Structure formats: C-alpha cells, structure tokens
Amino acid sequence: MSHAESVTPVYQGQPATLPANHLMDTLLPVRPALVDRGSAVRTAPGIVDEQLASPGTLAVVLSGRQGLVQGGGLCVAAAQPLFQELTAAGSAPELVIYLGSALPDSDLPAGTGLLLYVLPEQVAPGTAGIPSDARWAGFREVAAGLSATHTALFVEASAITNWHAGHTHCPRCGTPTEVEAGGWVRRCPADSSEHYPRTDPAIIVTVVGPDGRLLLGGGGPLDARNYSTLAGFVEPGESLEQAVVREIYEEVGVRVTACQYLGSQSWPFPASLMLGFTAVTEDAEARPDGVEVTRARWFSREELQEAVLAGDITISSRLSIARSLIEHWYGGRIRDLAEA
C-alpha cells in the first residue's frame, strides 16, 4: 500500500451525527448567476435565427482565444446590424451561439437575448461594423477591469468556443459534426451520436499544517517569487477528496488528514472547473516533486503579509479562487505591495 493510500480517512474527526441539512459556516461566498443560459429554450429549432431577428438581442465577439473589448468591458453590440455588416464585409461568423438572456442582477436589461459571434479571423477595429475604439484582448489582460456581468459573459463565451474548437469531428467515426441546440450540441450525421461541452474538474487546495501555517508552492526557477495554492486534475473514477489527498502527496509529499470543500470557480482556459478545498496535515515538512512544484514554503499569517508587502513573494491575484482560498485561511484581506 502506498503512502497516499494509507493516510487517515478524509472525514475522521468530524462528529458522528450532524443536524439535518447541516451546512458548515466556512464556505466561500456564492456568486449569483447573471446570465440565464436557457437550457430548455436553446433546444428549440431556429433559436439563433429567432434571436438574430429580434432588434433587442446583443452580441459579443470572440476570435481564437481573444475577445473584442471596448472601454473597460466587452464590446456588447446590437446583434442584427453587426451580423449584417460582418457578413457584407466577408467576415461572417463561423459560429453563432446562443449564450442565454440577462438576469435581473446583471448590468443589462433583464431578459435581453445574448449571442456569441465566433470569427475565423480577427477583424480590424473600424471595419465590418467593429467599433473603431474596440480592440482584441485575452481574458487575463482585461479581467481586473471587467464587471461581474462581463466576466460571466467572457468566461461562458470562452468555454463554449474552446469546446467547439476541439470537437469538430465525431470521436467515434471521425465524421465532421453538425452544430445544434443553439451551439450547445454537436451531432454526428453518420451515427447520430450527440456530443456535449465538457469540463475538466480540478482541485485547488490550501494546506494548513499542525501549527496553523499555510503551505504554498510554485513551479519554475528556484529563485522565482510567485507562490500559490496547490492544484491538480481529478482523475477518472476518483472522488474530489481522493484527488486532494493524492495530488498534495504527489506534489509536495504531505499527507492530508482531512479536507473540506469551500467553493468553485470556472476557469475555461481551456476547460477547467476549479473546486476549492482547505485541508489539514500533521506533516511539518514539504518535499516538492521538482516537476510541477519546485518550491514550497510554510507561512504564518504575519510572515505571509510581511513577505508580500516587502516584495519578497507574490501571491495569486484577486481574480482567482486561489486568492479567495488564501484569504479564507488568513481571515481577511491580504494587502498587496501596490497597496502599501
């Protein structure tokens, strides 16, 4: 039996009985959905044409891994005239996907229909209906300035675009697939098999030692300053908790004795769902595997804040669930060097 298999069961130490429907009070905040993806609506034949015909429908535009941005957010344009101008200029979208409709808490009028135009090539701003003050940018470049609504749209659009790019042919017979259900299904015309968007689950973990210190790690050069939480993909047939135990032991040689789920974040670059955990260990020594993790350090709360403010290390940005997990352990906001 390997060390990873012989660790203490994940739930050891919890009370044998809990009140019905018990919820722990240490969960990360749940962010409400801002777009109704319309899983029932999008299956209707002609949903995209119906949305294109509606003067109130809006569209966002992606090409490759970049989105069309304008000002401090995504470029959200009237769908019908933009489609017509793109088509007239010979730059018609290779895919038009139904993203859903705006929910009441979004920045857009509730019920507004939303489409995604996926272009085969980037179109120069000021041409084909693209605003002259727009530009092409990746999510990481602009994420810090995006509103919650524009973040949700960019993430959803990126996820579905990435899936289409990698699933153009049937995995059974190799026949080119056809797009259905508003862009959320690809069907093989040869064997009628249906294929749906996939997400790869990954666990991301704060590991807390017996003295309450936090273990952070990093890859690359030994003198690099970036440190973050540990993470890894869930393997087939594996539970999330088993993945936490295995990945932490494989990456830093630390045996997890208990873990708890805290929250999640979609990270579709290309297709991940980050499932956040906090875990505890009785081990006080970390041994990086030298491949995925080359550096690992334990930090007390005071040491971590001082190291960040001194510029000795950098930690994950507030865009990521990694920062939320770290600040959950810390018990509040960690000031960055730029804020000092």
Notable characteristics:
single chain; 340 residues; alpha+beta; eight-stranded mixed beta sheet; six-stranded mixed beta sheet; 7 helices; globular; disordered N terminus
In short:
With 340 residues, this protein is α+β, with helices and mostly antiparallel strands. The chain is built from seven helices and 19 strands. Strand 12 and strand 13 form a beta hairpin.
Characterize the structure shown.
With 340 residues, the chain is α+β, with helices and mostly antiparallel strands. The protein has seven helices and 19 strands. The longest helix is centred in the middle third of the chain and has 19 residues, at 148-166. It starts with 34 loop residues before the first strand and ends in a 10-residue tail after the last helix.
Lay out the secondary structure:
Layout: E1 35-36, H1 47-53, E2 58-63, E3 66-70, E4 73-74, E5 77-78, H2 79-88, E6 95-102, E7 113-118, E8 134-137, H3 139-142, H4 148-166, E9 178-180, E10 185-187, E11 194-195, E12 200-208, E13 214-218, E14 226-227, E15 230-233, H5 240-252, E16 256-267, E17 272-281, E18 295-299, H6 301-310, E19 314-315, H7 321-330
Parallel strand pairs: 2-7, 12-17, 14-19
Antiparallel strand pairs: 1-6, 2-3, 2-5, 3-4, 3-8, 6-7, 9-10, 10-11, 12-13, 12-15, 13-18, 16-17
Provide the structure class: alpha+beta
Please give the share of residues in helix: 10-25%
Number of helices: 7
Which term fits the overall shape? globular
Unreliable stretches:
1-16
Number of DSSP E strands: 19
Major sheet summary line: 8 strands, mixed
What is the element string, with H for helices and E for strands? EHEEEEHEEEHHEEEEEEEHEEEHEH
Distance between the termini: 50 Å
Tell me the strand percentage band.
Answer: 25-35%
